[in-house]
Amino acid sequence: MQEIGYPDVGTVAWQGLFAPAATPKPVLEAVFQAVTKAMQLPETVEKLNKHNFNIVPNKSLADAKAWLADEMKHWENITSTVKIDIAQ
Q1: Long-range Cβ contact pairs of 65-69 (< 8 A, separation 24 or more)
Q2: N vs C: which end of the chain shows fewer Cβ within 10 Å?
Q3: What is the pTM of this model?
Q4: Is the pLDDT assigned to residue 1 strictly greater than 80?
Q5: Per-residue pLDDT tens over the stretch 33-87
Q6: How far apart are CA 4 and CA 45, in angstroms?
Q7: DSSP per residue over 57-70, as a string?
Q8: What is 17-35 written as a DSSP string?
Q9: Angle at the Cα of 67 (from 21 to 83), degrees rounded to 5?
Q10: What is the signed CA dihedral for 72, 34, 40, 57, rounded to 10 degrees?
């Protein structure tokens, strides 16, 4: 995208877990803690590294929410700015 004039367009692949909006915060915290702990296990790190994953867990649920909001805002800006005309 840089070559055609959009230097700020780019991304990396990322993974996340999502839950319904009404999920109680203690449940979200428990899942967050369990996943964070699992991501630190040597066998998990080894398997993810084998596939060239860069393991960067969020520091908290609030951190994850803020990161996602920023990511959504970033891509909303890009998709509203970049006009793609598909000729028929």
Answers
A1: 68/16
A2: C
A3: 0.71
A4: no
A5: 999 999 999 999 999 999 988 888 899 999 999 999 998 998 888 888 877 777 7
A6: 37
A7: --SSHHHHHHHHHH
A8: ----TT--HHHHHHHHHHH
A9: 95
A10: 10
